Amino acid sequence: MPWHARLQLDYTAEQNARTVARYEHNGPLRILQSLYPEGDAICHNVLVHPPGGLVGGDTLDITTTVGPGAHGLVTTPGATRFYRSTGPLALQRSHLTLAEGARLEWLPLEALCYSACHAENHLTLNLAPGAECIAWDVTALGLPHAGQPFEQGRFTQHLEVPGLWLERGVIDAADDRLLSSPLGLAGHRCMASLFFAAGTPLDRTRRDAALDAARAVMEQHPKVKATAGATSPNDRMVVVRVLAPQVEPAMKLLKAVRVAWREVLWGLGGEAPRIWAM
C-alpha cells in the first residue's frame, strides 16, 4: 500500500524575539526537538521521514510557513531515497511561504535516485517583500560507491519561485546524450543548486558580494571548480550550480558557500545544524 504523509510546519517570532516552531502531521513525517545553537532568534529543526525512502505511489507533502521576523532552519538526518518503482510515481512536494521580513534556510540532504525509480521532487518558494531564503537542492543518480549505476528510471526535478525563476528538468536513464554528453551532465552523477532568493530586489552591492563570495569559495574546492558556477538570473536571486561525480564534493562546496553567504548577506556566523556532525 502506498504511504501518503503530510507535514505543516509554522515558524513564528514571539514577543521576546524567540522563533518558535509548531507543526502538525498526518502519516510518517515528524519534526524533532527545536534547537537554538545560535540563540533564540534562529530555530533549527530536523525533518524526519521514518520509512527512510519513497516507492512508487508514495507522496510526501511538506508545507512550511515563516511568519514576520522569524528565522527557521530545516534539514534532514540523511538522504531522501527514491526507490525502484513498478510504474507509479513517487512524489515529494515542498511548499515554502515566507512573510515580510522572514528568513528561512532550507537545507535537506541529498535526494538519491535508485535505478528504476519513477520520481518527482518538487519545490515551490513564495516570498513576501523583505523576506529572504537560502535553499539548496542536491540530486544523486544511482549509487556509484556501491556499484549500482542509474541504468533505468526517470526523475523529474522542479524548482520554482513563481513569477521569478523556474527550473524543471527530466532525467531519463535511457537519455545517454543528457547523461554523458559534454553538453549535459558529462558523466557526472550528482547535480546540485544553491540559491539565495529575496522578496525585494537586491541592490547591486549585495548581489555582487554574494557572487564574489561564492566564486572565492569555488577557488578553494579544486575537485569541482571546473564544473561549478555562480550567476544572478534576476535582481532578486543568486544561484550556484555544480556537477560532481558523487555527492560529497558537491555538498562540501554548497555548505561552504552557505557559510559565506550568511556572513556577507546576513552578518551571521556559519553555525551548522548539529545533526550534520553525527
TrEMBL record:
Pfam families: UreD
Compartment(s) where it occurs, according to its Swiss-Prot or TrEMBL record: Cytoplasm
GO molecular function, one term: nickel cation binding
InterPro entries: UreD (IPR002669)
UniProt main location, coarse: cytoplasm
GO cellular component: cytoplasm
Keywords: Chaperone, Cytoplasm, Nickel insertion
Family in the record: Belongs to the UreD family.
Subunit field text: UreD, UreF and UreG form a complex that acts as a GTP-hydrolysis-dependent molecular chaperone, activating the urease apoprotein by helping to assemble the nickel containing metallocenter of UreC. The UreE protein probably delivers the nickel.
Function field: Required for maturation of urease via the functional incorporation of the urease nickel metallocenter.
Full protein name: Urease accessory protein UreD
